[in-house]
Write a structure and sequence with these properties.
The chain has a single domain, classed as Arginase, Chain A (3-Layer(aba) Sandwich), CATH 3.40.800.20. α4 packs across α5. The protein is of the alpha/beta class and 367 residues long. 38% of the residues lie in helices and 14% in strands. Bound molecules: zinc ion.
C-alpha cells in the first residue's frame, strides 16, 4: 500500500484578475507581474521538488477526471454553477471576493475538485494507503454560492459528498490547518452531524468576521464544528499543543470513518499571508499526529487536499516533508531554512501564553 499523489498541469494554468498582491490594480496601486499571491509557482515547484529528489518514484502519481456537474451540484446550486460557467466561457471574470478566474476557469476548478474527489475515493476503495491532492484553485473559503479568498469550488466538500453518495463513507472529519479560517467548509457542513469540521487558524486574519470558538454548528450539527483561532506568532510548540489538546481529543470523540485534511502551508514562518512561525518540521509533525489518529480510529484512511501557502520557495519543502511522512519513503529534502527558523521560534513565555489560550478554548469547546 502506497501514497497516491493526484495532480494535473492544467490546474497550474488557472489565473485571472488584475491584482497587485491582494489589491486590485487601480489608482496608486502599480501592477505587479506576479499578480495575486495565489499563483502556480508554489504548487508547480512542490511537484518539481518531489520529482527532483525522487520521492515521486515512491508515490502513485495519478491524475483524475474533472468533477462532474452532478458532483458539483451536491454542494453548489445550479444558479451559481451556471453563472460561473457563463463567465468562464465569456473569457473570465469575478463573481465573489478575491476569486478571479480566466477563460476556462470553470473547467479548471472542476478539475481541481476532481483531483480531491479521486484522492478521497482512492483511499476509501483501498487503492492507496493515503493520498494527497495537489488541487488548484483551492477550495476551503468557497461556500455553496459565494466564491472568495481564491476559492471557486469547495473541493473537499465536493469530494466528501461524492464519497457519501457512492456509499463509501458516512462519518468524515475535516481538519483544516491552513492559516486562514475554513469558512466555506464550515458553512457547507454547519448543520451536518456526519461531518466534523475543525479549523486551526490565525485569529482574525481571513475572513475577518468568521472563525470564532463560539461557532460550533447548528441543529443536528451542533458540536460538529470546532474553531481554534490562534494568536499571531505561534510556532512549532503551539501547533503541537493545539493538536494534542483540541484536534486529537475531538477526533477521538467523533470517531470518523475517514479523515480529510485541508492542507494549507501558509502558517509557515515566511508566508506573506500569515503571521505564524511553523516550519517544515511542524507540517511533518502535524501529518504524523493525524496519521496516528487515522490508524487508531479509521484504519489509516487519510486524504490531504492542498489549500493555501504562498511562499514559492518554502512551500515545496513543507509539502515534501508531509509527503515523506505519508509515504515513509526513504527520500529527504533537507529544509534549507531549518537553522534560521529554529532561532525564530517564540520564547517559552509566549508558548506558555498560547498554551493557556488553547486550554481556555478547549474548555469552551467541551474538550
Ligand atoms: Zn490560507
Amino acid at each position: 500500500m502506497t501514497t497516491a499523489f493526484f495532480s494535473d498541469e492544467r490546474c497550474f494554468w488557472h489565473g485571472g484578475g488584475n491584482y497587485a498582491f491582494t489589491l486590485p490594480v487601480a489608482g496608486l496601486v502599480q501592477p505587479l507581474a506576479a499578480g495575486l499571491p495565489e499563483n502556480p509557482e508554489t504548487k508547480r515547484r512542490l511537484r518539481n521538488l518531489i520529482e527532483v529528489t525522487g520521492l515521486s518514484r515512491h508515490l502513485q502519481m495519478r491524475g483524475a477526471e474533472p468533477a462532474a456537474r452532478a458532483d458539483l451540484l451536491r454542494v453548489h446550486p445550479e444558479r451559481y454553477l451556471s453563472a460561473f460557467q457563463a463567465a468562464s466561457d465569456a473569457g473570465g471574470g469575478e463573481l465573489g471576493l478575491r476569486a478571479p478566474f480566466g477563460a476556462g476557469g470553470y473547467e479548471i476548478a472542476a478539475l481541481s475538485a476532481g483531483l480531491a474527489t479521486a484522492a478521497l475515493r482512492s483511499v476509501l476503495k483501498g487503492e492507496a494507503r493515503n493520498a494527497y491532492a495537489l488541487s488548484r484553485p483551492p477550495g476551503h473559503h468557497c461556500t455553496a454560492d459565494f466564491p472568495n479568498g481564491f476559492c471557486l469550488l469547495n473541493n473537499i466538500a465536493v469530494a466528501i459528498r461524492a464519497a457519501k453518495a457512492e456509499g463509501l463513507v458516512r462519518r468524515v472529519a475535516v481538519i483544516d490547518w491552513d492559516v486562514h479560517h475554513g469558512n466555506g467548509t464550515e458553512a457547507i457542513f454547519y448543520d451536518d452531524p456526519g461531518v466534523l469540521t475543525i479549523s486551526l487558524h490565525q485569529d482574525r486574519n481571513y475572513p475577518l468576521d468568521t472563525g470564532g470558538v463560539e461557532a460550533m454548528g447548528a441543529g443536528a450539527g451542533l458540536g460538529a464544528n470546532l474553531n481554534l483561532p490562534l494568536p499571531p506568532g505561534c510556532g512549532h510548540a503551539s501547533y503541537q499543543r493545539a493538536m494534542e489538546r483540541v484536534v486529537l481529543p475531538a477526533l477521538d470523540r467523533f470517531r470518523p470513518e475517514a479523515i480529510v485534511v485541508a492542507c494549507g502551508f501558509d502558517a509557515a514562518a515566511v508566508d506573506p499571508l500569515g503571521r505564524m512561525l511553523a516550519t517544515a518540521e511542524t507540517f511533518r509533525m502535524l501529518t504524523r499526529l493525524v496519521m496516528q489518529a487515522a490508524d487508531r480510529l479509521c484504519d489509516g484512511r487519510l486524504t490531504l487536499v492542498h489549500e493555501g501557502g504562498y511562499s514559492e520557495v518554502y512551500v515545496p519543502f513543507c509539502g515534501h516533508a508531509v509527503l515523506e511522512e505519508l509515504s515513509a519513503a526513504p527520500v529527504t529534502a533537507p529544509d534549507p531554512m531549518a537553522a534560521i527558523l529554529a532561532r525564530r521560534q517564540p520564547d517559552a513565555r509566549f508558548d506558555a501564553f498560547v498554551c493557556d489560550w488553547i486550554d481556555d478554548a478547549a474548555r469552551r469547546l467541551g474538550l
